[in-house]
Design goal:
Elements: H1 2-29, E1 65-67, E2 73-75, E3 83-89, H2 97-110, E4 117-123, H3 131-140, E5 148-151, H4 155-165, E6 170-171, E7 181-182, E8 185-189, E9 195-200, H5 204-218
Parallel strand pairs: 3-4, 4-5
Antiparallel strand pairs: 1-2, 3-8, 6-7, 8-9
Length: 222
């Protein structure tokens, strides 16, 4: 009888030790890491763009200031110290923009209560997309005030910013919506103005990856 109790006690001790041994193994024999790249650390090498890139230096988003749907001035200054997701669109876009904006709603919802994350959707058709037009579009996509900013500004500055700041294609379509050219990419910018990732705004899996990497940046992991 006594031998059976000793055996039962030994088995119980082994069962209790298993989780401890697993934890010790994981801490000593494995590492948890997830690297998010930093783009253009030695400058941007793209001869197809007429931009004044600085050679051999980390590329950062240049200074800019636009107007949001609330007639507030927003730009690079408000990006400092925050994680910003940026895309280029226009409200009369007949193709990819509605899908992109619907996907961006997910980012807005996920980080609705996170003060250190914000969204800039920048119009490439500023002549049509006034703050009033952008307000209606923001309401359509249930944009959180103070979180998701729809921006409009000078056309030349906007296109230079897309090409030379965010390194994305952009082409003016004039009066024909189908002739506008812009990227479907969401761009992840860290609090230092560095580009950390590009994600297709028409691909839900890519947007899932974006949201995971935003969380990693928030927790200070690189």
């Amino acid at each position: 009888m006594r031998g059976i109790r000793i055996l039962q006690g030994f088995v119980l001790l082994c069962i209790l030790l298993i989780p401890v041994l697993i934890i010790v193994f994981l801490k000593t024999m494995t590492t948890n890491s997830y690297d998010i790249p930093i783009y253009y650390e030695t400058g941007v090498d793209n001869p197809l763009m007429e931009c004044d890139f600085v050679e051999n230096e980390q590329h950062r988003i240049p200074s800019f200031e636009f107007t949001n749907q609330y007639n507030e001035q927003m730009g690079s200054k408000e990006m400092k110290g925050k994680i910003t997701v940026v895309d280029f669109f226009f409200t009369s876009c007949p193709s990819i923009c509605p899908v992109m904006s619907t996907e961006m709603e997910r980012v807005n919802d996920m980080f609705r209560d996170e003060d250190d994350v914000q969204i800039y959707s920048i119009s490439i058709d500023p002549e049509h997309d006034t703050p009033e037009v952008l307000m209606k579009y923001a309401d359509l996509h249930q944009a959180t005030k103070g979180k998701w900013h729809f921006l409009t500004g000078d056309k030349d500055i906007t296109y230079d910013l897309a090409r030379c700041g965010f390194i994305l294609p952009a082409m003016d379509g004039g009066d024909v919506p189908d002739d506008f050219v812009h990227s479907d990419k969401f761009v992840l910018i860290d609090g230092e103005g560095r580009i950390r990732g590009y994600y297709s705004g028409t691909n839900s899996k890519n947007v899932d990856d974006l949201m995971v990497e935003i969380k990693i940046l928030l927790y200070g992991k690189k």
